[in-house]
Each structure stands twice: as C-alpha cells, then as structure tokens.
Amino acid sequence: KDVMQANTRATQDRPVRLLVFGRQGAGKGTQAVRLAERYGVPHISTGDMLRAAVKEGTEFGLQAKAIMDAGQLVSDEVMLGIISERLAEPDAATGWLLDGFPRTEQQAKDLVELMGSDGIDLALDLVVPEEVVIDRITGRRVCSSCQTTYSTGRDESATTGVCAKCGGEVVQRDDDTEEAVRKRLAIYATQTLPAVRWFGEQGLLVTIDGVGDPDEIAVLLAEAIDARIS
Ligand code: AMP
User: Fold this and answer.
1) Among 104, 127, 171, which residue's Cα sits nearest to residue 25?
2) Best substitution site from 30, 44, 48, 50 to test ligand 1's pocket, by max atoms within 8 Å of Cβ?
3) Which residue(s) pair with 17 in the sheet?
4) Which of 113, 96, 112 lies closest to 46 in space, CA to CA?
5) What is the pLDDT of residues 99-108, one digit of tens each?
C-alpha cells in the first residue's frame, strides 16, 4: 500500500507542524525532505541554515563553523533568534517541518513558548543504534549546492562526486569525521535526548524504528502523522 501517494488530502486541511528527532545518521534529513514534500510545508533545517551562513563567510558564519566542526552546539540564544526569524517568514504561516531544532530542552521550551502549547502537532523520533549510525555517517556525502545526501555504499553520486539531481559538487561534510561524529553522538545523548523525553512527557512524541528500507520508514512516519492530524 502506498500511503505516501494515496493519502494527500489530510495535508490540505490545516497547517501541520512537525519536529523530527534522531541522532546524526538516523536518516532524519532524508525523511524530513520527503515528509515536508508530502505535507506541503517548508523543510526547515537549522543545520542547512547554519551551513549557508558558513558559505556566505559572514562573521557569524565563521563562528558557527568552528562550533560545528568541533561537533558542538550553537548557543540556545542564537538558535532561538534564527528560528524565530525563519518561522516568521510567510511560507511558514501554513505549517513547517523542523529538522535539527530543537536540539536541547531549553530550545524545546523556547519553541513551545514561541508557538503556544498547541502549536506543535507531533514530534517524530527516528531511532537507530550507534554502530549503524557511525557506519552511515562516515559514508555520507552531500551536494554542496542542493544539499541532497548520498551514501558511498548505495549511490553513484557519492563516489563520482557529481550530484545526480543538480550536477553540483558532492562532498563530505567537515563535521562528518569520526572524531566529530563521536562527539556529536555524546552531545545528542546528554543535550538532545532530554528534549526528546520532554516531548514524550507532553504526549507529543512518536518513536519510529529508523533501521531498514527508507521507503518503508517513510510510510511508518506518514501513518503516525496522519493518525495524529486526521
Ligand atoms: P545538522 O545538520 O542538523 O546535523 O547540524 C549540524 C551542526 O549545526 C550541529 O552539529 C550543530 O553544531 C549545529 N546545529 C544545528 N542545529 C542546531 C541547533 N538547533 N542548536 C545548536 N546547534 C545546532
């Protein structure tokens, strides 16, 4: 059954506001892009926004790059500023999907304060064991133009270095080295898991097994969302 195509009606009824959690390499970015398309909402990735700032070479971008390359988190104050501005843009008025935000319990509470207590429909947590994500991340490559991600074991673009979608250059992220990855996994456990648990306590969390065929995982995610918003 193809839920991704069959059920598009639910998306038009009202704005849908979604959060996607999952540690680095859980498939969060890939699934976030698909879900945003399915529900017709902007895919807002704070990691992509920060990488765009790095590319522009602003003073802020330089500071952000140092933090990101070290596998650490940009401060909650700065992130709240970035996300408030982004959510105030017209395309975000009819809903959104946040990927990479909130990353701490403080950010979670900031977001709820910003949006109101019924301002979030559902938080999805993609769960993948640590050994699996380390393998995935060290094989991950990303298009420096359109941000499409590829995997060395699976996609030709990862080995040729040419994006199949836009022809852009496919590279390894500076923060996808094994050392930075281990650091980020540790930070996820200490900083982000409390935020995930917090959404659980609010009754807003659905946990999805992130190991397996991406298409099947996409269906499980869509079913969880449809069950919530219909
Ligand atoms: P991502 O693409 O989501 O893995 O983000 C890449 C990096 O950007 C992270 O390792 C952090 O350094 C930074 N970053 C992204 N989102 C946030 C956030 N909500 N709070 C703090 N730092 C963030």
Assistant:
1) 127
2) 50
3) 96
4) 96
5) 999 999 999 9
